[in-house]
Amino acid sequence: MTSHRMLRLAALPLVFVLGAAGPQSAPRLPDAPVPHRAVYRIGLDHAKQTSGITEADGRMVFEINGSACEGFTMSQRLVVRLADSEGSEKLLDFRVSTFETGTGDMFRFLSRTYVNQELVEDVNGVASRTGPDIEVKLQNPPGKTVKLATATLFPSQHLNAILSAARQEQQFLSAEIYEGGGENDGADTATAVIGPAQATASEEGLTRGLRSWPVSVAYFNAGEKAEAKGLGEEVPAYQISFRLFENGVTQNLVMDYGDYALSGTLDRLEPLERPKCE
Predict the structure, then answer these.
(1) Taking the C-alpha atoms of 265, 35, 103 and 165 in order, what is their torsion angle to the nearest 10 degrees?
(2) Higher-confidence residue: 92 or 236?
(3) Can you give the pLDDT at residue 106?
(4) CA-CA distance, 65 to 272, in Å (whole number)?
(5) pLDDT at position 19 over 50
(6) Angstrom distance (rounded) from CA 27 to CA 157
(7) What is the rounded distance in angstroms from the CA atom of residue 221 to the CA atom of residue 5?
């Protein structure tokens, strides 16, 4: 399990109104998601017996600031304790911070993964749209460069593409995305299924009166797609479902890793000041 899989909400957050990017376009972001801080209570949604996992509890904090004119800065941290049937426990700590320009031409990322307070993964780099493609330069691991197709979406662009599809009552959206994960040399394919809009009875200030949609997104990375092709079927590396409000706020999270799934219940939602564009 890697940090970029555990923290897919960076892309939607969490992981957020325009159409999906065309092959020669870099979509500009509108003012979504709204700046906010969200705190989620993490629990065990379900687990297969073969996983051995019997308990999970923790917390996830997601914060996003900025605007389309000056770009969006996101930070996210997930700390979860996993217990197994033999009485052993493991503390997982995932930390991600990113910056994405409103023009969609640059995405900077830093992610760190700790297991029992020991650093096991440290990835940071910059992805830039340069000419006919996207160039990703990794500072850690050092000296590594990755080329991506120009149609690849960065996280906030992907969220806005989902919102645009939802507003147009489009039920499916497939896109190539890049979130700065450390183990893959290419983009992932994200396939979203979007349910019908619902009026919200929420009393939260940021979501009161807004429409929302049930969304499920399955992620397939390049290596797993190639492996599944030989077997005649594709199995997602990871899947997340949530309720998405039209300003980019999410709730009712389920993060499914195949053998087990974590739930995320929104405990606290705080608005943050939006900078004014000149």
Answers:
(1) 40
(2) 92
(3) 94
(4) 7
(5) no
(6) 7
(7) 10
Question: Would you state the structure tokens that stand for residue 41, as one six-digit string?
Answer: 């209570």
The pLDDT tens digits of the residues spanning 42-71 come to: 999 999 999 999 999 999 999 999 888 888
Q: What is the pLDDT of residue 23?
A: 33
Q: What are phi and psi of 135, to 5 degrees?
A: -110, 125
Q: Give 133: exposed, middle or buried? Use CB within 10 Å, 0-12, 13-18, 19+.
A: middle
Question: 3-class SS at 69?
Answer: coil
For residues 149-153, average pLDDT? 91
Please state the rounded mean pLDDT for residues 162-185: 86
Q: What are phi and psi of 9, to 5 degrees?
A: -65, -15
Q: What percentage of the chain has pLDDT greater than the value 90?
A: 55
- From CA 13, how far away is CA 76, in angstroms rounded? 9
**Residue pointed to by tokens 């929104």:** 266
Give me the residue label for tokens 């906030």: 156
H or E stretch covering 212: strand 211-220
Contact 189, 225 (CB under 8 A): yes
Report the C-alpha gap between 157 and 68 in whole angstroms.
11
With CA atoms as reference, report the closest residue to 207 among 242, 254, 157, 155: 242
Distance between CA atoms of 241 and 85, rounded to whole angstroms? 27
CB 194 within 8 A of CB 215: yes
